[in-house]
Structures are given as C-alpha cells and as structure tokens.
Amino acid sequence: MSLFNIFTVAGSAMTAQNQRLNVVASNLANADSAVSSNGQPYKAKQVVFMSTQPAGGPQAGSTASSVNGVRVGKVIEDQSPMRMVHDPSHPLANKEGFVTMPNVNVVEEMVDMISASRSYQNNVDMMNTAKTLLLKTLTIGQ
C-alpha cells in the first residue's frame, strides 16, 4: 500500500466518524423530548458503516489488500422499546399517567461519542504520521 493511500482511507474514516458524531449529538439532544417533529416520540438512531470500493471499482487480479475506505452505509432506528415515564401531570400522559419517552440511553450515547471522537483523533494522528514519513522520505536524497 502506498503512503498516499493512507490519506484516502483515513479521510474517509474521518468523514464517517463525523457523521457518527452528528447522529450521537442528535440522539443526546432528543433524549428527553416527548415528541419529535413527526408528532411521535423520538427513536434513537444508529450508524451502520460500510466498506468502500477502491477508485475504479474492483479490478481483475486485485488482492485482499486493495485499498478500501469506509462510509456510512445507512442510519437506522434503534428497535429497543421506548421508555415509559410516570408523570400524570404531563399533557401527553396516557390514562395510567405514563408518558412515552425516547429509547435513547444517555450512557451508551456518551460512550459512543467518546469512541467516535477517539477514532477520529486516531485517524488525524495517522495522517500526520504519514505526512511526516513522506516529508522525511523526500529529504533522504538531499
């Protein structure tokens, strides 16, 4: 693998982690929202990553080590059950006094945020290391 391919792979990973952070931020922002924009309780969202094909698509005779990147394949709704909170004074409470709240687990979202942030930073560090190696390679002949 060429050192130049590292920039493609790390760049795609940084873009994917940025989208993951945006989804986490949306989940955290709506963790206590009883109603979303569609009038229903907010459902937590999860990011699904997919591998990207090298530029030009799969080639005849390509090996398993061909350069791929990563992208967000889709954002899916979490299928875990909604939280039921007892609050009889809430205007959206049912006849038993329960309000349907989002299925966002704040602790899991914070862990996901830390993981995405560290993954992003690791890719930045990898790009900086590759840049340093390329610059040192250029100075060898001087």
UniProtKB/TrEMBL annotation:
Keywords: Bacterial flagellum, Cell projection, Cilium, Flagellum. Transmembrane segments: none annotated. Its main location: other. It is found in: Bacterial flagellum basal body. PROSITE patterns: FLAGELLA_BB_ROD. Residues 9-32 form the Flagellar basal body rod protein N-terminal domain. Residues 96-139 form the Flagellar basal-body/hook protein C-terminal domain. Pfam families: Flg_bb_rod, Flg_bbr_C. GO terms for biological process: bacterial-type flagellum-dependent swarming motility. InterPro entries: Flag_bb_rod_N, Flagellar_basal_body_rod_CS, Flg_bb/hook_C_dom, FlgC. GO terms for cellular component: bacterial-type flagellum basal body, rod. The basal body constitutes a major portion of the flagellar organelle and consists of four rings (L,P,S, and M) mounted on a central rod. The rod consists of about 26 subunits of FlgG in the distal portion, and FlgB, FlgC and FlgF are thought to build up the proximal portion of the rod with about 6 subunits each. Belongs to the flagella basal body rod proteins family. This is Flagellar basal-body rod protein FlgC. It comes from Nitrosospira lacus.
